[in-house]
Amino acid sequence: MNKTEGKKTVVLLSGGVDSTTTLAIAMNDDFEACALTFRYGQRHTHEIEAATRIARSFGAAHHIILDIDLRSFGGSALTADIEVPKGRAVSDISRDIPVTYVPARNTIFLSFALAYAETLGARDIFIGVNALDYSGYPDCRPEYIAAFEHMANLATKAGVEGRSFTIHAPLIAMTKAQIIRTGILLGVDYSLTTTCYDPSPEGKSCGRCDACLLRLQGFKEAGIDDPVAYINKG
Amino acid sequence: MNKTEGKKTVVLLSGGVDSTTTLAIAMNDDFEACALTFRYGQRHTHEIEAATRIARSFGAAHHIILDIDLRSFGGSALTADIEVPKGRAVSDISRDIPVTYVPARNTIFLSFALAYAETLGARDIFIGVNALDYSGYPDCRPEYIAAFEHMANLATKAGVEGRSFTIHAPLIAMTKAQIIRTGILLGVDYSLTTTCYDPSPEGKSCGRCDACLLRLQGFKEAGIDDPVAYINKG
User: CB distance from A68 to chain B under 8 Å?
Assistant: First the structure.
């Protein structure tokens, strides 16, 4: 999967199933991938380690890890001390905007990706948002991605000079099972990824938070065994 | 000017003439101002000190200083080691996109402002962009601000739930002289502000970079003496 020819692109890489599959799709499309990961006051750094393993394993051209401090603002279970919900029915997960919602997170991430892309001379940005499995997050919807792309082309020297940016969200209409099947076809080793909001100190996934439940259901529906270790597997 | 009643708003505050005047306008409109300043690898920290003085002097309800690392991407005289142009004719300054252009800077700043606003329960964001004096920057134009606002209302829980965000850019169509006159009417002490891209170690403005030249011309046209100290005053 090590492709270094072709056009440069920025790929947002968190180390989870979705962003890893997105990286595989971008590289399969002959893009030279420059991965961008954020350290943003997550309570666990296992995501950063996973992203680093994945970028190296895929042969990404560059991997930048940026520190940003979303904790200054508070307001989310992923950055503050609100309890992560456990053991919900999968059918309940996407109904409401979850407590793990981080205000404007994808907007902040895409803004940095835009700055990085313009500096690289890249015209393409890949983000692994998904509207089906995470319908609770407003910044995972196609209309949001379209609005960001429009804004990006007004915001930048490159956009103004007619070298338009495209925000690619290849997973946006896929189910988790379709995402996993796509990744498997592209040779993704999902044992490198991490998903859990609340893993054990040894790095085992809890199996009960919303993220684990959606991941496990996705692997089940895809008919594929999830290769990561769980404390509680279903 | 110490008003703490009214609706909360986030005001982007760099410590220069424009953002300081914008803060004065927001507070004069009875907003409770929460100022947001970025430390982003500027070569000089005098801007942060100026912003801190100004937020305190105005009685802002809060002042958050966020570290963001735009240096990882390179690409601008304000964050990298490109030489700042000096001694240009004012008429030449706004013709092209300047070398001091930072890719996607206002997009990154507004994205954080959006996250902060949503966390505060604020619906308003003030930014001191100006299309006339800085026409070279694509992210200072009204169409850019409108596109950001549209995107912001699709990006966020608050926007989706119908509590729309408004991005206020009260200076967007003003000349520098109009901005300064407005600030003087509102009681702004411009000796607190800083503008120079390349000040002396003692904090004197160079008087010859684009930012100084536009500032000096603005004060001249406003018929007001600029209270900051210069090495070279035109």
Answer: yes
